[in-house]
Design goal:
Layout lengths: L9 H12 L6 E5 L6 H13 L10 H7 L6 E4 L7 H11 L9 E5 L7 H12 L5 E7 L7 H4 L3 E4 L5 H10 L5 H10 L4 H8 L1 H15 L5 H12 L4 H21 L12 H6 L4 H18 L5 H12 L2
Parallel strand pairs: 1-4, 1-5, 2-3, 3-4
Helix pairs in contact: 1-2, 2-3, 4-5, 7-8, 11-15, 12-14, 14-15
The site of zinc ion has 9 residues, from α3.
Length: 318
């Protein structure tokens, strides 16, 4: 029920509940932290508390059920395909000027708030400066620094940290009934993120990960292979960021393999064969990591993700 549906983040839950129970709710929250860590899920459960008939996020009343089915008229979820534009911001201002339809409050959840265009941000800022009283905003982001300070300063910030690896492992053993060894690997490669773990638990995604590794450091090469895999990943929406962090961890592993005696620190153990075969020099590892970082940054402002990925892969392939 309510927050119990979510693993971890106890401190954040406690903080949010104390605001709610003491009726000290701010009009806007900023939930920040790594991708796939459960920020949006927690926001939704919190919104259940706010709109629930019993005020506890009971899961059983009509408002709670409507939230679960994403058809509660007082829950507005905004997310852009590539970015959140001015039309969406205007829609928000119009909506919040009305009274809530069913309850006393309305919740506006803006997912990936860092993808708002400048115009959209400015329009939202006006709303946040003089917020109509019945509304609570939830801005969700995995890249807080891409949200202008003017917006950030008007929100109560709730920062999320990765879950301990053991918790993620336990989650996959209990909830997904995974074998211990597999759960251990999934927990390791998803860096304390259940969302990341769920992504890698999908066989297709997992297989593509190895393929990507083989293209970058293995024997499968060629421009065609690069183009195809870049296209496939670019179309994946949130998946892109998981593959980009995989590439980061792959190059860190290459560093460990080539420069440390202790190879137990290798994250991507399932492709250890590829990693250990490769004796990459530090300069290349460094320049590849920089290029990956640059791509992660440019991904936010560039519509052509396919081209960006392709460029990246051609740069970091040996
Ligand atoms: Zn309820």
């Amino acid at each position: 029920m309510g927050f119990n549906n979510i693993v971890g983040h106890e401190r954040q839950k406690e903080f949010l509940l104390s605001l709610f129970n003491n009726e000290r709710m701010p009009h806007a929250f900023l939930f920040s932290g790594q991708e796939g860590i459960g920020k949006k899920k927690l926001a939704i459960e919190y919104i259940k508390h706010i709109l629930c008939e019993k005020g506890i996020g009971c899961d059983g009343c009509r408002p709670c059920q409507k939230i679960d089915h994403r058809n509660h008229p007082d829950l507005l979820i905004v997310e852009g395909e590539e970015s959140i534009g001015i039309a969406q911001s205007r829609m928000i201002s119009k909506e919040v000027s009305e009274h809530p339809y069913e309850g006393k409050k309305r919740a506006i959840l803006i997912d990936r708030a860092d993808t708002m265009t400048r115009e959209a941000t400015n329009a939202l800022l006006k709303t946040l400066e003089e917020p109509p009283p019945a509304n609570v905003f939830f801005l969700i982001t995995s890249s807080e620094r891409d949200i202008p300070l003017t917006v950030r300063s008007r929100c109560a910030r709730v920062a999320f940290s990765p879950l301990p690896q053991a918790d993620v492992e336990e989650y996959f053993m209990k909830v997904s009934r995974m074998e211990k060894e597999k759960a251990h690997l999934i927990a390791r490669i998803s860096y304390g993120s259940i969302g990341g773990g769920l992504f890698w638990a999908e066989p297709d995604n997992f297989i593509l990960r190895r393929k990507l590794g083989e293209i970058i450091i293995g024997k499968k090469r060629g421009f065609l292979a690069v183009t195809l895999i870049a296209e496939k990943i670019a179309k994946m929406d949130k998946g892109v960021s998981f593959y980009l962090s995989f590439l980061q961890s792959l190059f860190r592993d290459l560093y460990v393999a080539a420069h440390e005696r202790e190879t137990s620190m290798i994250i991507n153990r399932d492709i250890k064969d590829l990693i250990e075969r490769e004796g990459m020099d530090l300069k290349r590892i460094d320049s590849s990591l920089k290029k990956i970082q640059e791509t992660i940054f440019n991904m936010r402002y560039n519509v052509n993700r396919w081209l960006l990925l392709e460029n990246l892969m051609l740069h970091i392939m040996r």
